[in-house]
From TrEMBL:
Name under which the protein is recorded: Glycine--tRNA ligase
Classification via Pfam families: HGTP_anticodon, tRNA-synt_2b
The UniProt record lists the keyword Nucleus: no
Species in which this protein is naturally found: Anseongella ginsenosidimutans
SUBUNIT field: Homodimer.
Reaction(s) catalysed by this chain's protein: tRNA(Gly) + glycine + ATP = glycyl-tRNA(Gly) + AMP + diphosphate
Organism superkingdom: Bacteria
Length: 481
């Protein structure tokens, strides 16, 4: 059995070779921690978004969706704490001129100690690191790096600068003349666009608490460390829902969304052992409960979604900074209050990677081997491919007619190049659930062969039943019910 590091390399190579993810600006040698989604990657990403939006907005009468702007008033980021507090502790190696996150260097050393069986030493280092991070003790972090003789991975030297804070927000300037007052930021999260529109949505949608606002959108963070492919990027996409509740009921709703969100992930049919909850030992100052849903990637368990009980922090901050009341009048209690918020937040790119890792399968067959992406049919980029057995005798015409009858409802492909076996392998590699083969018998009795991706079993069916068969198997109902 291959090791997990090699498996992850194979997954990255496959994603590029088959048009899922490309390094951005590759012909110019790329841009660090930025990626482009190829033709199948874009389809898979859109299908994940559709699944989330349907589960959140369509299936819940009290949740509605918005699409807020990327550029927002700079005061918003002061109110949210991002201007003063959205920092990472960075350290530079003077010889390699490379910059690292101090906590990441220490995390790597902790992982090394654990691998070597030095669990007590690892636990002690973790405790010290977390204490210094919480106290914002930058010199303490440098002291730990020196004490544990951590060297730069590039130069191999321990010639370090001091640790200093580095703000993760991208700033730019707005307007024809660029003065100091014209600074705006690319949003580092989508949540604030929801909070500042709380009253707009509540009033125009006549929403009664409890209710939620959902949004899918791009966010930007000036990550210095590019890690683990599309796990940590500078430009990424989030799927977030902020659920506004009556103060005092927030922990009940927190428990509800914690359970509901894990159910959403497991509906895709992964190995349940690869998912777990990870409760936050230390909470953000505004939270009274927080948990991550973690997925076991080839490089270990990592967060794919967070559920947070944010209290009334965000709306209260915007009320204070804007001078506008961010309150809800509750007719049952006959009083105004600032609602509490439960947040569910997924990194779409991380979700994409978890779906891809879960689907990626290397199979040894009787006389052959194959790499197959076993996506849930509802998420598969291509739902079915039509394959004429040969390029002559009217088979392509028949195949095209079938293709035309199905492409209005399903994302279809047509392929007549190479042997039928090679074409099957190509479709396995992009995760197409069904291959429809048109042969000479099809011309006689209007039947075709459907080959099922996972089992590789084939069945003969009438052409007129194709729409119902495919429709039933790729339907969103299979997930949403």
């Amino acid at each position: 059995m291959q090791n997990k590091e090699q498996l992850f390399k194979n997954i990255i190579a496959h994603s590029k070779e088959y048009g899922f993810v490309f390094p951005s600006s590759e012909i110019y040698d790329g841009l660090g921690a930025v990626y482009d989604y190829g033709q199948y990657g874009a389809e898979l990403k859109n299908n994940i978004k559709t699944y989330w939006w349907k589960a959140m907005v369509q299936m819940n009468e009290n949740i509605t969706g918005i699409d807020s702007a990327i550029f927002m008033h700079p005061e918003i980021w002061k109110a949210s704490g991002h201007v003063d507090g959205f920092n990472d502790p960075m350290i530079d190696n003077k010889d390699s001129k490379k910059r690292y996150r101090a906590d990441n260097l220490l995390e790597d050393r902790i992982a090394k100690y654990e691998k070597e069986g030095k669990t007590e030493k690892a636990a002690q280092l973790r405790e010290q690191m977390e204490g210094f991070l919480k106290a914002d003790n930058l010199s303490g972090l440098k002291q730990l790096i020196e004490e544990h003789e951590i060297a730069c991975p590039v130069s191999g030297t321990r010639n370090w600068t001091d640790v200093r804070q580095f703000n993760l927000m991208f700033s730019t300037r707005m307007g024809a003349t660029a003065g100091e007052n014209d600074v705006v930021y690319l949003r580092p999260e989508t949540a604030q666009g929801i909070f500042v529109n709380f009253l707009n949505v509540q009033k125009t949608g006549r929403m009664k608490i409890p209710f939620g606002i959902a949004q899918i959108g791009k966010a930007f963070r000036n990550e210095v460390i590019a890690r683990q492919f599309i796990m940590r990027m500078r430009e990424f996409e989030q799927m977030e829902m902020q659920f506004f509740v009556r103060p005092g009921t927030e922990l009940e709703w927190y428990a509800h969304w914690k359970e509901a969100r894990l159910k959403w992930h497991l509906a895709l049919g992964p190995d349940q052992a690869r998912y777990r909850y990870h409760d936050h030992a230390k909470l953000a100052h505004y939270a009274n409960a927080a948990v991550d849903i973690e997925y076991e990637f080839p490089f270990g368990f990592k967060e794919v979604e967070g559920i947070h009980s944010r209290t009334d922090f965000d709306l209260s901050q915007h009320q204070e900074f804007s001078g506008k009341k961010m309150q809800y009048f509750d007719p049952e209690l006959n009083k105004n209050y600032v609602p509490y918020v439960i947040e569910t937040s997924i990194g779409l790119d991380r979700m994409f990677l978890s779906v891809f890792c879960n689907a990626y399968t290397e199979e040894q067959l009787e006389n052959d081997s194959r790499v197959v992406l076993k996506f849930h049919p509802a998420l598969a980029p291509v739902k079915a491919t039509v394959l004429p057995l040969t390029r002559k005798d009217g088979l392509p015409d028949k195949a095209r007619a079938i293709m035309d009858s199905l492409k209005l409802d399903f994302n279809m492909q047509y392929d007549e190049k190479d042997s039928i076996g090679k074409r099957y392998r190509r479709q396995d590699a992009i995760g197409t659930p069904f291959c429809i083969t048109v042969d000479y018998e099809s011309l006689e009795n209007d039947t075709v062969t459907i080959r099922h991706r996972d089992s590789m079993e084939q069945e003969r069916v009438p052409v007129q039943q194709l729409h119902d068969i495919i429709g039933r198997l790729v339907s969103w109902k299979t997930l949403l019910q």
